[in-house]
């Protein structure tokens, strides 16, 4: 219930105005969103972590905004070291305006990224964009075989999706939105995650295991051994600000750990999804608002 309510708040323009203009929100934002992206990337790299950087923004409503998002990514690419990844939301590139437009914009980013030794991963968003996401991904893969895509385990067709994506870079996550027909019980989502993980680990692509869940992390490690994947054959991915000690521990064991680092002013919807994932964070957030008034 609380999660649903928070996800509704994440789409409310009125709540966005109130929350994002409050100076008291800053501490919570700083925990999850990089303020100086170059400095954060340099620090994570120094600590032996890989990065995927998300220029925050989604749901553009006109062509100029979509072009501005592409420019932001081209500028970002100039700041990233080889081996980095960028995470791209197709709705920020105009997917809801036209699939062709989003494909062209994403191809521009892929070309620029390749020139710098950086990979591109397409994030998965609301359920009504998933068909478009995979159509764009398939089109891009013909010229850019390294382009990755996200599969959300809460969708019942995620297993079939993983099978079809054999050979690709696939980030598997639980899913941060809501969708009709999606699994909602944590046990069902976890079971689906494991079924997908088995297919990805046994396949020929590059699995990217995006979770902070201790049990799923252990299962991923075991499957990697059983399937004969060495540390370079898959990676863990976690969000900036979430379980940083676990990120360091896994990297210390020699695993590839990539941190998803969002940056930019358009942080509202992202932050609300993070608060929805963990009621304890929400309590912390509300308490900080109340106690400083
Ligand atoms: P949970 O069951 O939510 O959490 C397990 C444990 O992790 C919790 O007990 C807690 O200890 C810790 N934890 C989890 N979340 C938080 C938090 N916010 N703050 C503090 N501790 C926390 N979703 C999409 O729909 N599309 C995407 O493209 C996408 N990309 C992602 C990329 C990465 C690298 C990651 C890590 C997640 C991504 N997600 C995406 C979000 C994902 O779907 C989940 O909503 C999110 O990761 C929480 O699920 P979990 O697997 O960590 O498990």
Give the SSE layout.
Layout: H1 2-9, H2 13-20, H3 26-32, H4 37-46, E1 50-55, H5 63-77, E2 85-88, H6 99-115, E3 119-122, H7 130-143, E4 148-152, H8 158-164, E5 169-173, H9 186-202, E6 206-210, H10 214-226, E7 235-239, H11 244-252, E8 257-263, H12 268-277, H13 279-291
Parallel strand pairs: 1-2, 1-8, 2-3, 3-4, 4-5, 5-6, 6-7, 7-8
Helix pairs in contact: 1-12, 5-6, 6-7, 8-9, 9-10, 12-13
The chain binds flavin-adenine dinucleotide (FAD).
Flavin-adenine dinucleotide binds next to strand 4, strand 7 and helix 12.
Structure notes:
There is one protein chain. With 293 residues, the protein is α/β, with parallel strands linked by helices. The chain contains 13 helices and 8 strands. It has a single domain (34-266), classed as TIM Barrel. The chain has helices spanning 2-9, 13-20, 26-32, 37-46, 63-77, 99-115, 130-143, 158-164, 186-202, 214-226, 244-252, 268-277, 279-291; strands at 50-55, 85-88, 119-122, 148-152, 169-173, 206-210, 235-239, 257-263. An 8-stranded parallel barrel has the order 1-2-3-4-5-6-7-8, surrounded by 7 helices. The longest helix is centred in the middle third of the chain and has 17 residues, at 99-115. The radius of gyration is 18 Å and the shape is globular. Bound molecules: flavin-adenine dinucleotide (FAD). Flavin-adenine dinucleotide binds next to strand 4, strand 7 and helix 12.
Query: Could you state the order of secondary-structure elements as H and E?
Result: HHHHEHEHEHEHEHEHEHEHH
Specify the oligomeric state. single chain
Q: Which stretches are poorly predicted, pLDDT < 50 over at least 5 residues?
A: none
Mean pLDDT reading: 92
CATH fold label: TIM Barrel
- Annotated CATH architecture: Alpha-Beta Barrel
């Amino acid at each position: 219930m609380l999660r649903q309510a928070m996800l509704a708040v994440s789409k409310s323009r009125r709540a966005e105005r109130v929350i994002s203009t409050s100076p008291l929100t800053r501490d919570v934002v700083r925990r999850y969103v990089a303020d100086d992206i170059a400095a954060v990337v340099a620090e994570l790299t120094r600590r032996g972590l890989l990065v995927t950087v998300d220029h925050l923004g989604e749901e553009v409503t006109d062509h100029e905004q979509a072009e501005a998002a592409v420019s932001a990514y081209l500028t970002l690419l100039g700041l990233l070291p080889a081996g980095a990844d960028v995470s791209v939301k197709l709705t920020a590139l105009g997917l809801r305006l036209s699939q062709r437009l989003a494909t062209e914009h994403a191809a521009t980013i892929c070309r620029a990224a390749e020139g710098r030794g950086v990979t591109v991963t397409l994030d998965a968003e609301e359920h009504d964009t998933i068909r478009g996401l995979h159509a764009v991904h398939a089109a891009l893969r013909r010229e850019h075989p390294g382009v990755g895509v996200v599969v959300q385990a809460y969708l019942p067709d995620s297993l079939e999706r993983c099978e079809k994506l054999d050979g690709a870079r696939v980030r598997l996550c639980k899913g941060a939105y809501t969708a009709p027909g999606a699994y909602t019980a944590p046990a069902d989502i976890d079971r689906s995650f494991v079924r997908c993980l088995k297919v990805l680990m046994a396949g020929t692509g590059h699995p990217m295991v995006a979770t902070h869940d201790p049990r799923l992390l252990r299962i991923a490690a075991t499957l990697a051994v059983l399937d004969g994947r060495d540390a370079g054959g898959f990676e863990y991915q976690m969000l900036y600000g979430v379980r940083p000690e676990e990120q360091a521990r896994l990297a210390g064991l020699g695993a590839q750990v990539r941190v998803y680092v969002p940056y930019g002013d358009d942080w509202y919807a992202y932050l609300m999804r993070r608060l929805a994932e963990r009621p304890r964070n929400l309590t912390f957030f509300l308490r900080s608002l109340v106690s400083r008034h």
